[in-house]
């Protein structure tokens, strides 16, 4: 059975371009397209797709409609996967997407559309209840966190940092092992070590540990932003 998609993007040329790219992928079927939040929600009710691929900003407000849709769909269609396409590497958007849970949620930068591998991986991940955060967002979070003088990241080995990045992106143990040329059992041991060093609660479910790691990495970044916003 193909993965049925609803695509939401308010710019016609972009929407048609992404639609054609997705329809050319084996195993994907674009059931409907929409250009605003209201028509997206109606299309989901009408078509019953497996995954929604949505721009982060659309009418009516051109603010964070893609994230609003993900929140509402968590309540009305809890098993539906959502991939938010964004031009913003700012981690606060990714964190907002994960507010209501990370299962079946992906945050992908729009620049990845030209290289379909990342988008295809995100769609397949959320269709199975997994999570995926764009590697560029993760890399920014790791760099920000590592700059803190007292960051526990300094306790991690180079291998542990590599695994941490893959975890934050939403990779499961088998994928991490393949990417880093490690035994899967070794990956599990490294993850245990990471969680101990960072003081995080062990989470066997991939989507839960994605949220835990992203929240951890974002702490210093968000704290800095909060202080900077104070008078």
Q: Under CATH, the topology of the largest domain is which? A: Rossmann fold
* Chain-averaged pLDDT: 89
Q: Please, what is the CATH homologous superfamily of the largest domain?
A: Response regulator
Number of domains: 2
CATH C-level name of the largest domain: Alpha Beta
H and E order: EHEHEHEHEHEHHHHH
Distance between the termini: 56 Å
From the alpha carbons, calculate the radius of gyration and give it in angstroms: 18 Å
Strand content: 5-15%
Helical fraction: 40-55%
**CATH architecture name of the largest domain:** 3-Layer(aba) Sandwich
Which spans have pLDDT < 50 for at least 5 consecutive residues?
221-231
Count of helical regions: 10
Instruction: Tell me about the largest β-sheet.
Output: 6 strands, parallel
Shape descriptor reads: globular
List keywords for this structure.
Rossmann fold; single chain; alpha/beta; Arc Repressor Mutant, subunit A; 231 residues; 2 domains
Description:
The chain is built from 10 helices and 6 strands; from the N terminus they run E-H-E-H-E-H-E-H-E-H-E-H-H-H-H-H. It has helices at 12-23, 37-47, 65-76, 91-98, 116-127, 135-147, 158-169, 173-180, 184-198, 206-229; strands spanning 3-8, 28-34, 51-55, 81-86, 105-109, 131-133. The protein has a 6-stranded parallel sheet with strand order 2-1-3-4-5-6, with helices on both faces. Helix 3 (65-76) links the parallel strand 3 and strand 4 (81-86). The chain starts with a strand and ends with a helix.
